[in-house]
Each structure stands twice: as C-alpha cells, then as structure tokens.
TrEMBL record:
Protein name: Carbonic anhydrase
Keyword Repeat set for record: no
Role played: Reversible hydration of carbon dioxide.
Sequence similarity: Belongs to the alpha-carbonic anhydrase family.
EC number: 4.2.1.1
Amino acid sequence: SRRPRWGHGAGPDHWHKLYPIAKGKNQSPIEINSKDVHYDPSLLPWFVGYDPVGARTIANNGRTCKVVFDDTFDRSVLRSGPLTGIYRLRQLHFHWGSSNDHGSEHIVDGVKYAGELHLVHWNPKYSNYAEALRKYDGVTILGIFLQVKKRWLLADVIGAGGM
C-alpha cells in the first residue's frame, strides 16, 4: 500500500480521510479572527529551551528548508502554556510563497504573511515520534509568522527583546 503523502499535494481538505482527528476544530491550516480570541488567565506562560547543538541535519528539498534535531532526550523542549507535559523538538521547517504577501499556512484577520516557521515537538510519553503522530496529545507545533522588511534597524531587534 502507498504511504499517504503529507503536505499540500494531498491537501488539507483530504487529511481527515486518513486521520479523522484532523477534522473540524483540529483542522489545519486555520484562520484566526482576533475578535473571536479571548484571553484565558488560567494558562501558564510558555517555556522554551532550545539547544542549537542538537541540530543534526539541515536540508533544502526545494519546497522547504528543514532542520532535524536530536530528540533522544529532553535537550530542546517546549512546555507549559496549555501543554500538560514536556514536548521534545523534533524538527523545524519553513513555509513561504512566491511573493511577500503570502506564504504562511495560517491566516490572521484575513492576512497571510510572507512565511511561517513551524517548530514540531512530540510528547516523550510515547516511545517515539511515529507513535506520537497517531495520538491526540502526541504532537504540538509552534507556528511563528514571518514578515519581510526592507531594512532591519538595531532598534527593531532591541525592541523585540533580541538583545
């Protein structure tokens, strides 16, 4: 039997046929409407601890750039927020388009961004990433929108907490 093809080739409209959990509120990509978003004071802040030494491979397959990390122990992790435990960083990859006004998978208030970074994490309560993919709480992905600017200023970096 053929393995399902992940990505845009199979299309998100068809993912639920092979993975029923990917239907309805669990579907991706999504459009976020800020008027429908509400603050939840019970959520804890996120904690991220990423060790760049854990990067094992970097590859560009023509559609994305992907970095795979050593996930054999809790070297690079995401926890807290809505998560009930630690999630290990498996890989990161990018989505981009042919112009700076689209490329992100997700949309906020009707706006697409130039690109999107996905940090893919898995729950180590499962024996491996493949098993975690089949579980409701097995994988979590942190998405970060990317914008293109004509010129970066040091004030932009400092203002964003980068220095």
